[in-house]
Specification:
single chain; 5-stranded parallel sheet; two-stranded antiparallel sheet; 7 strands
């Protein structure tokens, strides 16, 4: 979310190209269970204990894509001008260049103005800044909101920040030594078609490399300067006031509780697939794994935790659960190896 303007002159400095990312296949799943009963037996069946309905046995395992990490984009909105009057069409820059680049890199891109549910935009924005796997920040103009949001990210998360800009000749003193990737715009302030393909590939490569870097790597200048600073656990960064952000998760949790009480395993799996927000999905996977384990389905619980680790390999709780369920499935040697790696 942003709003204000300042300096910049477009500069043409072609970044290196990179290979395209792997496309994510769509989720395909529609398990169902049907049955017939005579009218006389219906009332008797209603009083019986619920039977475990394992829809997974009735159809082949659905194709389950890897969870795409969540990328929150910090940039101005709409048309702005630099200090010298140069125009920037940030909506076009996002739509034509940034969003395709993040999708090519395998991320789920999100910008604050794309939120469609009701809620406090400020608190929801804080949740995005604090919990997103990666923040891409456009520093093309001196925008107060952009700097404020970037400062929050630098202060609370030690890694997962990428900086880009449209060829400005200088950077503000406090971030002048931060690596910033240039991209190209036309005199009208939109992505330059001549360089667009290369710019998309360069941004995709930089975001992929940043995400794939060592989990202990530090990208925040704040954490670099303050060696004793410890990054908070993601769970502690949850803001209860962000009602719009967490509404989907709360509604999902109620539906999963009903499915668990009715012992409908397939419903739990499908409900987990339905979660759209990757940040909420990690919480949902943990709840689904716990529910499946409570129902004695350790192999399905293991599948859930491993799916969660695809999106966040650093989740130690999921790693421990992975080892625990391997042991439950008598895969003791694998469990020991996983446990030692925690």
């Amino acid at each position: 979310m942003t709003d204000q303007n300042a300096a910049s002159t477009p500069k043409e400095n072609t970044p290196a190209a990179a290979p395209a990312g792997t496309p994510v296949p769509p989720v395909q799943a529609s398990p169902s269970a049907t049955g017939t009963a005579s009218a006389e037996k219906e009332s008797t069946a209603a009083a019986e204990e619920p039977v475990v309905v394992d829809e997974t046995a009735e159809s082949p395992s659905p194709t389950r894509p890897k969870i795409r990490p969540h990328a929150f984009v910090v940039m101005p909105f709409g048309k702005k001008k630099g200090a010298d009057g140069s125009p920037y069409d940030f909506n076009a820059i996002y739509k034509l260049m940034i969003k395709p680049a993040l999708e090519e890199a395998g991320f789920e891109p999100f910008r604050a103005d794309e939120e469609t549910s009701s809620g406090d935009i400020l608190t929801d924005m804080f949740q995005e800044l604090l919990l997103a796997d990666l923040c891409l920040c456009d520093l093309s103009i001196d925008n107060a909101n952009v700097y404020y949001e970037l400062g929050i990210r630098h202060a609370f998360r030690k890694r997962g920040v990428v900086h880009i800009q449209a060829g400005r000749a200088y950077m503000p003193f406090d971030i002048f030594n931060v690596r910033t990737l240039p991209y190209h715009i036309t005199p009208d302030g939109v992505p330059d078609p001549e360089f667009l393909k290369n710019d998309i590939q360069a941004i995709a490569r930089m975001t992929r490399d940043t995400w794939a870097s060592d989990r202990d790597a530090i990208h925040s200048p704040v954490f670099n300067l303050l060696s004793g600073l410890v990054e908070p656990e993601r769970k502690t960064l949850r803001t209860p006031l962000a009602t719009g952000f967490w509404r989907e998760y709360n509604e999902w949790k109620q539906r999963v509780t009903v499915a668990q009480r009715q012992k409908r395993i397939g419903d739990i799996l499908l409900l987990t697939e339905e979660i759209r927000n990757p940040l909420i999905k990690e919480e949902a996977i943990g709840e689904a794994g716990k529910a499946l384990a409570n129902m004695g389905r350790n192999e399905l619980a293991l599948e859930q935790y491993r799916k969660g680790l695809e999106g966040n390999p650093g989740n130690l709780a999921f790693r421990r659960e992975e080892a625990f369920h391997l042991n439950r499935l008598n895969r003791v040697d694998e469990a020991i190896v996983k446990l030692k790696a925690c």
